[in-house]
Amino acid sequence: AQSVAQPEDQVNVAEGNPLTVKCTYSVSGNPYLFWYVQYPNRGLQFLLKYITGDNLVKGSYGFEAEFNKSQTSFHLKKPSALVSDSALYFCAVRDKGSDYKLSFGAGTTVTVRA
Amino acid sequence: DTAVSQTPKYLVTQMGNDKSIKCEQNLGHDTMYWYKQDSKKFLKIMFSYNNKELIINETVPNRFSPKSPDKAHLNLHINSLELGDSAVYFCASSQDGGSVGQPNEKLFFGSGTQLSVL
Question: Most CB within 10 Å of its CB: which of A23, A34, B103, B104?
Fold first, then answer.
């Protein structure tokens, strides 16, 4: 079985401050991990993915995420948040030993205040 | 050109009706999906087709029937609509669905269909 948890429903930060969105996962084997962002009234957009190799993954819009196997985490980070980063963020996981199906977290709403 | 387009954007209908949502992708992708997002924004996969073949069929009522006439299209037909079907339905596509040992390519989502059943 595979699952992903996003422990925070909401994250609020001031513009210019660091932003972190937390994600932990559970798989029986090794994971493929993803972050997606959803702006209001839009479909999800891909931000970044971890497949293998370097634990620090860089993605779109200045976001990065760090894969931590011992803590089974894949937290999304941005050093300096922008008001335009305000959106709903989803973490997703797939066990490498299974096929096709991604499991999404419940989402974290990020609000960046000016 | 929109990569993944779905119609209609809004669908308001009465209980018991039958309705369809259409989806088309012009990315040349092999795999297409239907996801349901509920009022709490929880996202759940419903179906996936790879080269017109059904590869994921989650536990959804059999009132929901996907149809893929070709690789570029995946439509969703819903019979006997119920109040609980109200949600946003997203179509998505990817180059590869992600077979065992192979990573999923990134998903491209449509902008969603807001279904309201009255």
Answer: A34
d(CA B54, CA A28): 25
Segments of chain A with pLDDT less than 50: none
Q: Which residue among B55, B98, B111 places its CB closest to the CB of A43? A: B111
Residue of B nearest to A31 (CA): B103
Q: Could you give the CA distance from residue A35 to residue B75 in angstroms, rounded to a whole number? A: 26
For residues B22-45, one letter each, b for 16 or more C-beta atoms within 10 angstroms of the residue's C-beta and e for the rest, the string is bbbbeeebbbbbbbbbeeebebeb
Please write the tens of the pLDDT for every residue from A30-61: 899 999 999 988 889 999 999 888 999 999 99
Report the distance separating Cα A42 and Cα A61, nearest Å. 17
